[in-house]
């Protein structure tokens, strides 16, 4: 009888432990989303009002920074009085927002690509245009994929040509339609170049998930702002995979626990019969 109780307790503990282990990524993602949501809501509240002189000045500085960056790329010579990167779009904790309707994503963009930045959302490469749009610009933002507790750009590979995403910098909201998707080696920087007359934003992440020896580049070109319905397309995302896997493992553990309990019960009856 004592052994039977021990087996049941162990089975229950195994089940609870397995569920806790499987739930960790989901709980981690929920917590990360909540933390980001606060910052995103705060940023949106800040830009709800009509353009203030400070906002106008900040965007003007960002546009000038991009112009200087383009001139440097074209001529190879530094400007005499360059605008410092850290002084651009520096009035808030984040420099912009990226929204990807197809993936149900809204993520903050911050200066630089340090691990501290990338743990909380997207980072901006400081040697590319800042994400305020305009001709002769190409901003590149990057995010992690394959994290256990946060998906960020894990589902970026599911985007297709023609899908759209949005970038909001202060009170300037821009729409980009995906016109190019490519996979390159980490040291391939040619695709990051500004193209004369174009307004590009590229979303970048490591690929394939878990190996990360290449980079997935999803480039969008600026298009007019107008409502565009999200395409009806089945998307088996990270969360769904986690839930399905958790359900499968839970059922498996339950079946094994039931089978062991039944086996122990039979053995007990068999022993009683022998006695």
UniProtKB/TrEMBL annotation:
Pfam families: Sortase (PF04203). The active site is at residues 144, 206. CDD domains: Sortase_C. One of its GO terms (molecular function) is hydrolase activity. It comes from the Bacteria. SUPFAM superfamilies: Sortase. InterPro entries: Sortase, Sortase_C, Sortase_dom-sf. Keywords: Hydrolase, Membrane, Transmembrane, Transmembrane helix. The chain crosses the membrane at residues 241-259. The keyword Oxidoreductase does not apply. This is Class C sortase.
